Amino acid sequence: MSLPAPHPIYTLRGAGGALNTLHFRCHGEDPHLLFSGSGKGSIHIWNLNSRRAEKVVEAHSGSSVTWVSTLQSTDTLISQGRDMQVCLWDLNEGRSELLESVWTGSVGFCQCSLLETSPTNYLLAFAAQQTEEIKIIELPSKNPVCTLTPKAKVGMVMCIKLWKTNSGLGPLLLAGYEDGSLLLWDVTQRAKLSQVRAHPEPVMCLTFDPRRLRGISGSSEKKLSSWTLDSQNNIQLQDDVTLVNPGVSQLCIREDGRILASAGWDDRVRIFSWKTLRPLAVLQYHTDMVLSVAFSDHQDPRQRLLAAGSKDQRISLWSIYNDGAGKG
Amino acid sequence: MSPTMSQINDPKVAFAYLRPACVLLTKEPTVANVETLGEQLKEIHDASLQQLQEYVLFPLRFVLKVPQLKKEKLVQAVAEALSYVLEKTCVQSWDTLHDLFSELCLCLCSPTDPGKPADLSEELKSALLRCLDALLHAAYGDIVFKLYEPIMLPGLGAAVSLLLALGEKEKSREVQAAALRCLQSLILHCDCTQEHVIPSSDERCSVGSTMASFLPGIAMAVSRIITGNLRQGHAVTVRAIKVWCGSVGLVMEDAQLQSSKACETPSQELGRIGQLVVQRAPEWVKSTAGKLSVLLKKIISCTSAHRHWRVRLEMVELADHLLVACSQSLRECVGLLLEALVGAVNDEEPKVRERCEAALREISQRSQSCSRSSDGTSQILADVLSENLHSLATSLPRLMRTSNDQKKLFVLKVFLGYFKVLGPLVSVVLNSAAHLERISKALMQVLELDVVDVRIVEERSHGESLERSSGSVGSYAAHIPQKHFLYFTDEKIFSVLMEICRTLGFYGNIYLLTDHFLDLYRQSLVYRKQAAMVLNEMVRGAAGLAMATGAQCLDSGVQGPSASQEDLKVAAVSIMEEYTSLTNWNLITTCEETDGDRQDQQLLSPSRLLSISISDTTAIATNSLQLIPSSSAPPPPSMTTSTVHQLNSNIWQLCIQLEGLACLAQALGRDFRPLLMTSLYPVLEKAGEETLLVNQAALNSMMCISQACGYSSLKELINDNSDYLLNDISLNLQRLSQHPQAPRVLTVMLAHSDSSLLPLIRDVVQDVLMALDLSYNHSAALFCSVLHALMKALARWFPVSRCRTGGSARSKTSTDDFNCRQFLLDYQKQKDLAEGVGIEVDDTEDLEVPPASEGEDAEDICGPDEKSELPSHLIITKEVAERCVHLLSDPRLQLRLKVLEVLELCVYVLSERENELLPMAHRCWPVLRQRLTADDPLAVLRAFRVLCTLGEACGDFLRRRVSKEVLPRLTSSLTRQAPVSAKAGPVYTHTLAYKLQLAVLQGLGSLCQRLDLGEADLDAVCEACLPYLSCRQPVRLQEACLSVFQHLIQVDPDTFWFTLNELHCPCSYTPPHPDLPPIQLSGMGRPRDEYSDNVLKLLREEFGLCDGSVC
């Protein structure tokens, strides 16, 4: 820890609201973009070259945007708002037209999870009208795939993560619930594979590394809890990480699987080694709760950035642990 | 009289007409007879004259032949007549030509030595020379070449040496020129407008062979003429150059030398004459060329910097001619000639330039066509050029040290010319490391700056300059002092050097050059400034800015710079990164140890204080700000011994780098906009610098950048990029120890932008305040200047509309239409009110008018909303004011002063909202009172200004506090000081006490009026001020005191009318009714005393003086 504390390489301001969600899109030749969803209902599209908002989409008629993402294949933006809508936007050629919208009925804060099964088809998992219910639909056809409701009483769905296994099994879904439980669902079987109580408090966020079959979840307490999936798809609790201050809004693993970032309620972003979960750095810039973190998907590992969005209406961009990023 | 009309066209008639005169002339050779013949000749038509030529010539030649007749006048008349005939006719017979030629030569030469000119009058000489010239022109093509046969060598030689002697020694310019013109005709290089015989190649060759015998003589003598007397006039020099050029070109012509005839051995018949014939064998050519090159060098050095452009033009002609005709035979001169041409490429005279460009173009085309046919002549040319360039670069530093400015200028022009001629080949030449090294080192040495000027380090900018510039952005142009160079002073030299750099950039490989010069930049402190200068211009050149079109270059096909916009961008980024890196940007430009002292002095200096007390907007913005050396930047090697030179050098380096950023912007144009992300902040940082030069350079740079990027003004530049700036500011505020300049940047930004910035500013102000809160001790001073700038900006952006003019309006109406009855009625009413009569009635009325419920509702609905929707500038102001309250009791006097200024601005801005202002006034009152009553006089002064502003804004809110806590002290101090100042001498006006008096007097009046003070207080004020009405007081105190009374009179005219009249009453008043007692005022009938003048003035201005019948 002899190195001086890092500083953000840049900060983006002018979002005009708390930044609930961030999403990079840096592949391809286009100007590299960062999408942010604000508490005031606008989605800012930041050009990372000029470091300015290229466009602002007023997406959810003023209600907070909780999640944004883009599709790999097309210029489509997906956003979820607290107006209980998930909207698809066409961003081709500088447009921002509403393509579709899906009514979720969820009043919670649970962010959707997206899984692209093929260039034209993708699955979207979201919390549904019933507090414990998760719905998965296929897009763009909007065909419902399944509805997953736990039998046990676990409270509201807090966070979900949909991914595809290598082992030939269908897509799996991890979900964190209000009582601190983590459930693993098999989407095709519509069956619960495993359940574990990771936290005494509600699970605020979770992230999962499908290559290592290892995940981590955060809560409103001082602990991050990591776990793995064994060959029987059972969730095995592993080490805990104790934080200085309680509360984590989001967790994010860099694509190369080397570091993990946490968005803390204590205004700080913490960086951990994903392998050992050793704390590496504390990024201090924001003056209010950090609500979201995201790593860029830039092709050149050296140019991968970390973005943190905070309640103080600023986004900070950091360039950290990029030098020896050879493993990819 | 028009001769052509009446000319005789019939040969017979002509003969008859001329005959008597000819006969007479033969018999009696007199001047008159010759002139008669001459007159008659003019009436003969040319064709007839041709037929009669021999006949007419005879008597004339006869005169010349008879020796005893040789009188000067006669000979001259004959020569003129002969010239006329020869100009009109042709000589067809060899004998005539030969005889005439030798006769004329004989006339010219002295009888004893045929090679020397005779001692004749100038008129005669020029007549004879004209005649000779006419003869040579008149000779027919088939006979003229007989003149050059070997047999003629002795005669011809005599003529040549005669002409040379005339050309060289003669005093008269005309004769000189005429002799040289004859020589020109003789060497077939005449440039007159007449028709000339065009020799065949054989003929030319034989002429060449003959003239080869005289070449040494001609070349030597003519070069003496050329390099000789500078005052001989350009015409002679031009002619001489022509002769030189013609003779050398004739004899050394490649075409002749290559043919076999050149070295034919002379036939045996010639006998001894045969020895005179020169065989132009290769050895002879070589040795001759060697000798010629020596002469050529002399000639070029003498003429290429000649003052008259015609001479330089002729030089170009010579070089061109010889390069065309003799490039093989004169191989060793090619370099010299090219150098001469190249040097003339940048001539001031466009004609010379054009000719030179044409010549060079021709050369390059020729060499290119050669290179296409055979191998590598162009390569040879390029080689010669690059070789010349190398040697010139090697000797350049020495030349720059030793020679005079004119010579330097020429050398540099040659240097530049090489680049221009090489054109795109420059990049090839520069690929040679030796060349690049030489050239760059030469530039480094030549461009060395002189850094001894102390003023540069001393000069400081004040905040005002910043303000001023923001006011009139368009017309603003900062004055940038000249750079002083060690090795030259001429501005022209500098501009040529800069053009050299631009040309380098234009043709060279931008990557290579950028790399190389950046290397030099990093290599050593010694080269840093020069390398930066070169880089700046190079980039401009690479963008094709300020470049003449590339017409001169060898390869005329290529137009436009070699570097693409993309290359340029890459180069620009690397240069910019280097310039703005911490080590190269955060240079120390002030001596720390003296900084604080100086600021104190500045603060205490009378002029500044005066300005503070006069206008409320003047303020010290940047100069009381402490320069904190950046701790992250490695300290320069000898921090402790950082001498003035080093500081000076640092300042210049910064200036050059700032200019550099502007150059980069100019080069990239709108493409520079993305680079503003990283470059604007550093520039603004320097714009906040207190060293005048750096400050100005930064402002200039900003102007350039905003223009280059297509912004209409500085304001637009800053507003459009405020997000980039604020980002850096906010980040750097968090690491203030490394980036102490962050607040300064904000200051500059605020000074140059407008209220549209506010939403973003608000964000950063939070950062500023937080940073301030975290470091009250260390950087409070720094932050205070930011807060000051901020409040000043807010005050500018949101000017407060003063609607509190009720007081004066009321007093106006009461004085205008004074009605005695109404006054008494009002008085009665007031008195009743004071005693409590009728209060209830009034109260109920008041309550009834605004229904209470409505008022409540309004409060309920919009009350809380309004509170949250307070405009952000007011929120900021409130926050700042809060800090001010804390900082007002800081132990540092300077800081307190600064804070008082900020507070004043806060009050001004807040005065728009009384609801916000009054609580703030309440909060800051205790500390302010401390400043007013128990502080350094300086602080009292400033605090009083704040009080005045507060009084202006909150009116009677402060009445009680002021009258209780402050006023007694002020009045007592005024009273105490009055006798002192009345007795004091002129030096007193420089003391602090005086300034305090002045400030209090200046502010007191309006304060009293605003606060609506009670009678007792007014009396106290009046009493304290009265002594200052004395004419013994300093004038400005009197004026200030008058202003106090003017205000007081507005508050209560009657009282003060009375008071004044008590003091001095100029006129008597008669009561309107005899029943009333007579008016007795104690000032009546008093003699004039020290107060009378001012009292009278007041009475006159405020009351219209003795408007005797008041009632």
Please characterize this protein's 3D structure.
Chain B: InterPro entries: ARM-like, ARM-type_fold, TELO2-interacting_protein_1, TPR_TTI1_C, TPR_TTI1_N, TTI1_rpt. Chain B: Keywords: Cytoplasm, Phosphoprotein, Ubl conjugation. Chain B: This is TELO2-interacting protein 1 homolog. The complex is a heterodimer of chains A (328) and B (1111). Chain A has 328 residues and is mainly beta. Chain A has no helices and 28 strands. Among the domains of chain A are: 87 residues, Thrombin, subunit H (Beta Barrel), CATH 2.40.10; 135 residues, Methylamine Dehydrogenase, Chain H (7 Propeller), CATH 2.130.10. In chain A, the strands form seven sheets. In chain A, strands 1-28-27-26 form a four-stranded antiparallel beta sheet, with no helix packed on it. Chain A has a four-stranded antiparallel beta sheet with strand order 2-3-4-5, with no helix packed on it. Chain B has 1111 residues and is mainly α. Chain B starts with a helix and ends in an 8-residue tail after the last helix. The C terminus of chain B is likely disordered. Classes of the chains: A mainly beta (328), B mainly alpha (1111). Chains A and B meet through loops of A and helix 37 and helix 39 of B.
